[in-house]
Amino acid sequence: MSALTRSRLTDWTVVVPVLAVLVLAVTWNRDLPGYVIAVVAALLAGAVLAAVHHAEVVAHKVGEPYGSLVLAVAVTVIEVALIVTLMVSGGDKAQALARDTVFAAVMITCNGILGLSLLLGALRRGVAVFNPEGTGGALATVATLATLSLVVPSFTTSRPGPEFSPDQLAFAAVASLALYGLFVMVQTGRHRDYFLPVEAVGRPAGATSRAVAPARPAAGTAGRSVDATSRPAGDPDGPVDADGDGHADPPSTKAALLSLGLLLVALVAVVGDAKTVSPTIEAGVSAANLPQSFVGVIIALLVLLPETLAAARAARRGRVQISLNLALGSAMASIGLTIPAIAIASIWLDGPLLLGLGGTQLTLLALTVVAGVLTVVPGRATLLQGGVHLVLMAAFVFLAASP
């Protein structure tokens, strides 16, 4: 066995999913002491990170548009597994968990990740530059999905509460899936250039940075994934770029198959370990005198941690467009794939599925959309815009804990 093979087999992304499944087999359906629950929770978080890592490897191998779908489906499986597990164990208190989790994901991505990306990009160059056409289209899709799935149920009259009737839920699920699929086709097909990084051009002293249209892919790179794993050639911290075309070289078939197998193992571990720790999460939220809706915030923070780290890395390298793609793409996947999955799961779940937002949440969503539009339209942003979105993120977390 070569040193490279041994190193790969001892990598944490290999060890953690396997260890998480082994612990799951030992602890399944047993009353566990607190320290064991802590170990399972740590392995659950590690399995989530490992699952997203292996999904990115597989996505980079298969290329677009399938690569984006692989990553989105993997993240959605994790999110839906956590939601359904907690809804089953939470009873009536968890009827709004899907709404709380999806809304938290929208606020974290459109304010937390987006604001952090703009802040890091502006600190690096003075002004963060990006393509307003692609980013604006992504923001419009997120706003439409959020309105159809989370705002409209608060105003429909077929049911007494903030919930859809079965027909309305089916329409929202199909519309969400269709919009997400259309966006993936546009992003990876005809208008792929709108989602590539843009460069800052030289400017006179005292002038602001100006964005130019993104360069078209180099010859021979069509179909390759342009995501957080793609780095400019010569980046010492990036992955290998042997052919010097400006894109990370795709992994070998053997490495991709290994990641596919480990992705399945990690997803099994996430689903099982979530069931094990779900009572502890709910008990901890209650013990801290936090509202039950805060469980959704915890789920969203856990699921979106890998995207946050990837977006921050890209922004620090000056690739703000990639960061915004990750932020808004994650928001779209959270709504466009999670809502249809939850709609199907609601067939066998007891109790109503509450999706409509309350007054405070509606206000924060409206303010997020308005601020997002004003940020995106110019195609460049300063520290101010990043700070605005981060303050909105802080307001969301504070009001979620103290409604």
Automatic annotation (TrEMBL):
InterPro entries: Alkaline_pH_Ca-Antiporter (IPR052946), NaCa_Exmemb (IPR004837). One of its GO terms (molecular function) is potassium:proton antiporter activity. Residues 36-188, 259-399 form the Sodium/calcium exchanger membrane region domain. This is Ca2+:H+ antiporter. The lineage of its organism: Bacteria, Bacillati, Actinomycetota, Actinomycetes, Micromonosporales. The keyword Aminoacyl-tRNA synthetase does not apply. Residues 207-250 are annotated as: Disordered. Pfam families: Na_Ca_ex (PF01699). Keywords: Membrane, Transmembrane, Transmembrane helix. It comes from the Bacteria. GO terms for cellular component: plasma membrane. It is found in: Membrane. The keyword Disulfide bond does not apply. It is a multi-pass membrane protein. The chain crosses the membrane at residues 12-29, 35-54, 66-90, 102-123, 135-156, 168-186, 255-272, 292-312, 324-348, 354-376, 383-401. Residues 207-225 have a biased composition (Low complexity).
